[in-house]
Amino acid sequence: MSVRLFIFGLGYAGAALARAMAGEATWVGGTVKSVDAAVTLAAEGLRTFIFDGKAAGIGVTEAIRRATHLVATIPPGDGDPALAVYRNAILADDHLAWIGYLSTVGVYGDRGGDWVSEATAPRPTSARSVARLEAERAWQAVADARGVPLAILRLAGIYGPGRNAFVNLDAGTARRVVKPRQVFNRIHVDDLVATIKATLVRRAGGVFNVADDEPAPPQDVVAFAAKTMGVAPPAETALADADLSPTARSFYDENKRVSNARIKSELGVTLAHPTYRDGLAALWRGDWRGGA
Predict the structure, then answer these.
(1) In a domain, 247, yes or no
(2) Is residue 198 within 8 Å of residue 268, measured between CB atoms?
(3) What is the pLDDT of residues 86-98, one digit of tens each?
(4) How far apart are CA 171 and CA 167, in angstroms?
(5) 147 C-beta neighbours (distance < 10 Å), count
(6) How far is the C-alpha of 51 from the C-alpha of 116, rounded, in Å?
(7) In this structure, is residue 64 part of a structural domain?
(8) Alpha-carbon distance values, 169 to 50, 158, 166 (Å)
């Protein structure tokens, strides 16, 4: 079938998906928050619609009602912004065949470094992860009401061009904050896009963890990037002594290892960047700054 893809939120991940699908889908469009963002993405040939998350934007309802596939990336606030405004339009879309919702592995909460899979019951602790789980359930209700599959993609920390340890080192903002035995998973934006495309093409439903193969301490990532750049890494700082914002510090409250086995076995995904070393090495050889 031909694909008419509408993306709620052409941010870092949404725009990357739109670029990747532009040559494959019949039509690709999505929402942005500002005129500046609309102009920037329109210059790349992307179809943009302004949606501030509060009131309906010009042309959005019409675009939704012609879409065959929807992807939602906008983070929830007091509920899911897209559903708050466009739920009825989505339900009225006679062409709709599939929905994808980008969530977070944060819904699993703290597991003390243990492994989690899609079979692990969510146990969010932070307010943002609680909101994400509520949004997952709200999108599931809409998908069920419309009678289409919903893929819930729970993402690890995204990195890629313009968003990586090289950028932070170059800007002088990189830190090596250490909490013993703390690990995180990551996912290169190209692997994220490949996984979304795999779910979209298969019209797959269910929960999928989108993460790399190697949960690793964050300080190791910065050290590897510094070595690759040929610069001295920042000194290690104990978490208790680190000058972090409450949001940044809250990420260290959760410690888990995320299994990505399902995207490989059910979607046939092969990660181009299975570890942070692979991903950073590729970025260093290419466009680590973004926009090159």
Answers:
(1) no
(2) yes
(3) 999 999 999 999 9
(4) 6
(5) 7
(6) 35
(7) yes
(8) 34, 17, 5
